[in-house]
Predict the structure of arginine--tRNA ligase.
Amino acid sequence: MAHIELDCPASVKKQLAKVFEVSLRTTVPDEPDVVPSVDACAAKSGVKFADYQCNNAMGIFAKLKGKQSGFRGPPGVGQAIVKNLPQSEMIESCSVAGPGFVNIVLSKKWIAERLERLLIDGIDDWAPRLPVKTVLVDFSSPNVAKEMHVGHLRSTIIGDTLSRMLEFCRAETLIRRNHLGDWGTQFGMLIAHLFDTFPNPEDFNETAIGDLQAFYKASKVRFDNEPEFKRRAHLSVVQLQSGEEVYRKAWERICDISKAEFEKVYQRLGVRLEARGESYYNDLIPPTLDKLDKLGMIQEDDGARVIFVEGVNIPIIAVKRDGGYNYSSTDIAALWYRLNEEKVNWNIYVTDVGQWQHFDMLFKAFRRAGWLPKGENEFPKCTHVGFGLVLGEDGKRFRTRSSDTIRLVELLDEAKKRCKASLLERDAVKDWTDEEIEKTAEAVGYGAVKYADLRINRLTNYTFSFDQMLNDKGNTAVYLQYAHARICSIMRKSGKDIEEIKKVFEESLTNLLPNVLCEYLYNLTEIFTKKFYTNCQVVGSPDETSRLLLCEATLIVMRQCFNLLGIGNTAVY
Ligand code: ARG
């Protein structure tokens, strides 16, 4: 797991830790290693006794046992910590509770000042700072002519959110890389089938081929059943690899058609990617393997050329028995290129957990070669961000009703269609323009698909259910969008000029876990709706101005979260 020290000047926890650090140095001057431990207080049966707590007293007492410390149990240490606290405008009061926790209540005045800064300066300065120059996120990465499946959809959604988070933290250069599977022996049969189907090369284009997946399947059937075709398919691979013009052109056509299909998915999701497919690294494979060979890392194994790495009993196959290269050979060349040519400091790969071993071995090989530092957390570093399977409501791998694969475009269209249908049932929609309805159905529909995925810890399997993700009362994007629109409507009803009124997250990133951000957004929305909005009248109340400000501050934070999650939002809903 990635562990990166972030610089978070806005973090309340970190600021409190600094205050407590001063006290700890006075309380136990002979224990300079004690690190302040400050956490947000959890609510006990719905009640919160304090905002934050310092947990050091128990550990300190245990450490001092046997020494003449003069403290009366851990609570005594807690008392001393409180007594030695320096003056701080953040803290209203502190008290020692239970076995020695120091409960901290924040100063209302200090909170109000922070809110004021948020309203005036916006949220950008609240972002933690990432001490890394160039970060590359390798995500989505579907395979040409094969299906782009729900696994690729998960990679696309998670990778995009991680990229947005890294951008928010001002990574100097962020590369969103689409490592397209655009090379391999499957092109032999595709090209052979293409030549048979369209003797005139001018005739093959997007419309002529129609469904590339069906085309792939048809050529696979022939490959498996017609020996003569199989022979020609093999020959085509050789021709393609030797750079034969017509073969090269056919390959390009197939790639272009596939890419156009992928682009439709990216467009709907609002995801940007920079494509550099596997084919790009072809010529780099032999020289990179040569370097590893010179380091004595490549050995012969049953006709193949392989690399063994620490703690794993199977090797990486760098060159197959037939002399060809594979997925691993390409990743070796690609990582070498990223480290040496693109000077990437942090390489993040987003794929299903099933590829964990592939990446573990790749990184270990690079460490063995001395191309990555020995310490896993030293830079330049590599991280595999894995995720679980997408399951259908029957608990099995997700598939659509009829066919055995899912067209992602259709899946997204379905989400939008369902949102539009439920929108049209509402009275308020009567005065909306068609464009407003379309835009809202898109923001809500695509947002729902993303949020349903992101809110789950990515390592667990996730069940795809339209009914669940579109439920307006659950922990869904729909519910959040609705709350957001309601706050907007309060602001509108107040008739005040927001700009006029204005005058008066770190955890999620350190562990690369978007669900932490979702949890935060959901809690914020719940607190706003259930604690504030249902109890406090806003428009027309004597406290209207300050309550509107609180609404506005909530909106700023909600929008920033939506933005990081790649979810569009609507002011009306
Ligand atoms: N194309 C691969 C797949 O569909 C994912 C590629 C991930 N990136 C990489 N550098 N290996 O499983």
Notes: The longest strand covers residues 91-97. The longest helix spans residues 245-269. The pocket of arginine is lined by residues 138, 141-143, 179, 181, 331, 334, 349, 351 (CB under 6 Å). The chain has a mean pLDDT of 89.
